[in-house]
Amino acid sequence: MTLFLHLVRRAAVAFVAALAAVVALFLVVDFAENASAFRGPGWIPAVLEMYANRSGVVAWQVAPAAMVLAAGVTASGLRRTREWTAMRALGLGPWRLALPVLAVALTAAGIFVTFGDTLVTRAGQRADAILSQRFHRGGFGRPQEPRRWFRGRGGRRIYHLRGGGGTSFERVTVLEVTPGFRLAKRIDAERMEPGATEGEWLLSEVAERTFSRDGRMTLATFPRRAYRFDEEPGAFAVRPGRPSQLTRPLLGQQIALRRRLGLPFADFVLEWHDRLAHPFAAVAAGLVALALALRRERKGHLTAAIIEAVGVSLAFWAVQGIFWSLGVSARLPPPVAAWAAPAIFLAAGAWMLRRNA
To answer: Alpha carbon of 194 to those of 12, 107, 161, 259, 334: distances in Å?
Structure first.
């Protein structure tokens, strides 16, 4: 137990130091890129708040790479001080070192899974909002737009909902098109809400424009009018933006809604699983880095650990990118695509450690 705790402390310190160094490097580069936009009254507190939020996003993104570097540095440190030689002389194999490192990786993964929604969505949106609204620069990721476009069943109607939510919407435009995609009718209303019967919608302050084939337009206005649309209220609960901008509970809701409405949902399922698979990738990739650092013919210490960490990280992101593309294109089930890379590297790391035994 004493040896286990000693190795846990070594691995934890290496992980925290590697994570802090990578995050700090990214923030410094990002600050230098956007420094010209930081001006005006109170810009210092705004910048500090923005980078406090952005640091959480970056930490979540680079945590697996930091764990890869920490595993290599821990093993290199033990080899440099001859502690690894002493452990081998006592008959202790590589798993005596791997288990404490994996314990640190699992703990870090659990923390990032627990706070993943806060770090990935809320912190990222807050940082983007400060950069775009306060300093008028593009954010780290495209924020969600309040305006939403929906195409109805069969493609006959296109809905533009500018405000509201739930089942009632404000500043609504409904476009009706022909099979040849010619605009036949445009309906503008200040408010749209469900009617008393299924398929009925009540529109207030309505301006209805009808377009004939010869190009003439007829305008009619109504203080309140009922229309029959094919779309149910739940159809307009589809969230705009990318799946990465949603929390895991919202991703689950959107997956169920899109599946019911017949809309594409593979990328949402992929993102839902990736919120779990990404932090735990640190365990698999870290195991490979540890096996490389403990190979018998290895030379060098810190420099070798850094080179190996970069190589393992690049290989992991390449494999993950391939499976991600297969998942998005429906060539693989999204859960398989999300967990394939961690599973492959976990198996490879275990096999490599067994060879080092």
So the answer is: 56, 49, 14, 22, 35
128 CB-side CA count, 13 A: 17
Structural domain includes residue 255: no
Spatial separation of the C-alpha atoms in residues 10 and 1, rounded to whole Å: 14
Among residues 332, 128, 135, which one has the least CA distance to residue 245?
128
User: What is residue 204's three-state secondary structure?
Assistant: strand
Same domain, 56 and 161: no
CA gap 81, 266 in Å, rounded: 50
Residue at 194 is within a domain: yes
For the stretch 198-253, pLDDT in tens is 778 899 999 999 999 888 899 999 999 999 887 776 666 677 667 877 888 888 88
DSSP labels, 234-263: GGGG---S-GGGS-HHHHHHHHHHHHHHT-
**End position of a domain, from candidates 190, 217, 237:** 237
Kindly tell me the sign of the dihedral angle through the C-alpha atoms of 14, 15, 18, 20: negative
Judge whether 112 and 322 are in contact, CB under 8 Å.
no
pTM for the predicted model, two decimal places: 0.69
Contacts of 157 (CB under 8 A, 6+ apart): 151, 174, 175, 176, 177, 229, 230, 231
342 and 297 in a common domain = yes
Q: Is residue 127 part of a domain?
A: yes
